[in-house]
Amino acid sequence: MLNKLIYNNNHLLSNLLISFFPISFILGNLAINLNIILIILLSLLIFFDKKEGLNINLIFFDKIIVIFFFYIIFLAIIKYIQLPEGDQRSQLIIKSFSYLRYLFFYFALRFLLKNYFNLKLFFLTCSACVIFVSLDIIFQYSFNKDIFGFEAVPRRMSGPFGNELIAGSFLSRFSLFVFFLFLNFQNFKGMQLKIKIPLFFIFSFIISIGLVLAGNRIPFLIFIVMIFLCFTLAKNFRPYFFSLLLIILFSIASFMHYDDGIRKHYAAFQTKIISLLQPFSEDKKIEQKDFQNLTTAEKKYTIHYDGDIFFTPSVHAKEFISGFKTWNENKILGGGLKSFRFNCPKIYVNCNNHPHNYYLEVLSDLGIVGFFIIITLLTYLFYKTFFSKKIVIIPFSIILFGEVFPLKTTGSFFSTSNSAFIFLFISLIISMLNRKNLK
């Protein structure tokens, strides 16, 4: 009886911890790290229970993940030997070894997902968080403060995220679970159409309005791309996703028509994209004497390339070039984990903490070797999932694809929230690919 009680408690606790992740992304890095630690500890507790068994079979994906993390440690040791004593040397070794928590996190999830995971609970938690964030954004737009008292920022609503303008990114990451919850799980599939269809449309409008008001243009665009992928891969649900796409387009068109600030915000996106694709046009070139007269804020929008200086309204063009130049200094092995902030200022002016693109950051920090490992993992993973007949995997694989979309501007790949999200979804997808029965 005692063993059965412990087993059931572990079952419940593991489901709650994994399903708590959408909430932890709202609460912030402290909650994310605490959730990761608790999952690792719980998996160890169950793992060393004799009744659970100690048999582990590493599949291809597991081996690639292990190689990736061992490469990070190997590179850290090499750079530690090469670099002179100083802040960069100590931070490189500390950050590289602390990053191993995501390796333990990955295998903890793989172990727990093998025996204990309830997909429906995860979908429900994600859906509840998405609806909550969307409604909070709408409330903030309507009353200039959200329910927690966070004040609205012109053109961009942050909702419960306060000073961090990442609400659109959160919605883009988790919104698909709302729709697949309705479409995939038996309890909802059997719901009467007179209830199901109105609810689907209500939630579609709430989420679409939340995405528009959040003002994060790249996540908004990526979400539209993900809807197209859903339309392509989930053939039985095409009418629903076509309706969702129309609702999204109607929502943004309506707000751009009635709200001048939102219209200007999204209309400026076209200018920034053109600037990003044409950073070295003659009309953007400025003289050295004019550069000296620019303010500090204005200098952030300048690009130094081949002896000339260019002014661009897209700060990301400058970030991409700084990432490319930094990678050129250590093409094969890279400079080491989170080394961009140290290495970029040595060879380029106007650097940030990271190049705002996952692939450029991996190249600059881990070189071609690390880049090849990541590309191998993602390519094979998408190959397996997009040809999988398990419909429940589709939202996970599409969301991960949207997260690592090559042309996307991003935060740091190695930040707490991004790494936790990426390895959470990789582990979820790999585990589902290897499970015959999904609950």
What does this structure look like?
By secondary structure, this protein is mainly alpha-helical. The chain has a domain at 60-99 and 314-439. The protein has 21 helices and 3 strands. Strands 1-3-2 form a 3-stranded antiparallel beta sheet. Strand 2 (302-305) and strand 3 form a beta hairpin. Helix 12 (217-233) packs antiparallel against helix 20 (394-403), helix 13 (238-258) packs across helix 14 (260-277) and helix 17 packs across helix 18. The chain is globular and about 70 Å long.
Summarize the model shown.
The protein is an all-alpha fold. The chain contains 21 helices and 3 strands. It has a domain at 60-99 and 314-439.
Can you write the helix and strand succession as a string?
HHHHHHHHHHHHHHEHHEEHHHHH
The number of helical segments is: 21
**In percent terms, what proportion of residues is strand?**
under 5%
- Please tally the β strands and state the result: 3
Tell me about the largest β-sheet.
Answer: 3 strands, antiparallel
Q: Report the uncertain regions.
A: 1-7
User: Helicity range of the residues?
Assistant: 55-70%
Query: What is the CA-atom radius of gyration, in angstroms?
Result: 23 Å
